Give the backbone structure.
Amino acid sequence: MAASSGKYSNYGSNPYSGETKDLLRHGFGVYRYANSFYRYEGEWRHGKKHGHGKLVMSDGSYYEGQFIDGEIRGQGVRRWTMSGSMYRGEFFQGEMEGYGVFTYGEGSVYEGNFIENRREGDGILTESNGCRYVGSFHENRKHGEGFQEYESDSVYNGGWVRGQRQGHGELKYSDGSIYEGQFRNDIFNGEGLFTNSVGVIYSGMFINGGLSNQPFCLNVIGDTNITLKTGESFNLNLQLQNEDGEAINEISNLEIVITAWYKYYESTSESNDLTLIGTILDEEINNPILSPLGYKVVNFPLTDKETHDDYLNINEKHVQFVEENINKDLEEKGDILSGESNLIVENELDTNRDKVIEDIDNKDDKYDFIQPLISIINKGEIEINNLILPSPSEGYLPYALENLAKQRSTAATSQSKDTKKKGKASAGKPRQSVVQEPAMVTNEPELSHYARSGEYQIRIECNDIPLCDYKIQPLWMIVNIINSDS
């Protein structure tokens, strides 16, 4: 029997309009489904959709691509009108399966493998906010090993379980901080190592994103109120502790800053000289701060014995060098060191010696002892040995204020005694004012390079500790200096 072919020109009782063969839809044709939601237009073979076609939904959504034996299969494009999403890639039995690119209506894009309409296997998810994930998926969620870039420019590389970070991973923050260790429920949990942006390290257990052993304070192991003779050194043994007073050895590379302080004498006298010095003091030194002892203090020099000895040796070598060269020059000229000539040489030596010392003080910042000492705590503790309080620069204003106050007190006492002795005999006679230079407190020659007797304070503070609930407060201690013969 010969095969027949033809076209239906209207739908009527037959929803198909298109080419046929042997009374079967064959070739190109349009078919309207009974529920009127679907309409297919495309190629047919032996009564089945086969080849290239387009399945259109009444809301405007559609699939366009390959059909095999009536099923959506092969390469195609699927678009959802309501959400604005679109998929372009492989299909099997009407579902997204194989490799494809899914563009979500809100702007995110997934490129990778699908199984049964779900992201499965390796893929790349780029979210609308710029976040990007490259790695493994399971049942539409991040699962397995993956690399995640966040909107904040932080990046994570490690394990995932059901869309959350879990297992071993490394998280790098945009400020340079890094955590490497165990994750659970998307946060730090278990053994790990956190290094913050300035290099402070916490290595130990983490619980729910925080440190399991929280630092609470910085403590001095030993006495915080010590007494030293002039020129004696002292040691500092510092330790990070928790609320229970237990040592915390999980923290390393923590910078601490150590500074020395001396009492600030405010200019309360009516003396013009004292008021002037007080004004200069306010302009030339850092603003005074209130110490825990209840009075104001200002910076004082602090260093270690080795550095201070180095400073003194350099001074002595320079002075010796100048003296040797002056003597050599005089000998070459044939000068006779006697009488007036000897006095000239001594004056010249004194002048050059003072100039050399002044040059050293001015040009080399290494020996600016007013600057803070910087040290590093490792494994929660540090021992700093042979610290000393050297003498301040000549004219150190807190000393000058103290001297002037003592001088005025002494002068007032002496004047009061003289007045009582003279009685009425001195009445009517003009009194001459005598201006005296402030009397500096002097030490023995070998001790003049060190702080004089008095009460000094040491302030110790540290950088912030990463992920710590507490801000470590500065630690203060008292150093009492007494005369060496006391």
Observations:
- Residues 305-333 form the longest helix (29 residues).
- The helical segments are 272-284, 305-333, 340-363, 397-422.
- Residues 61 and 167 are 41 Å apart (CA to CA).
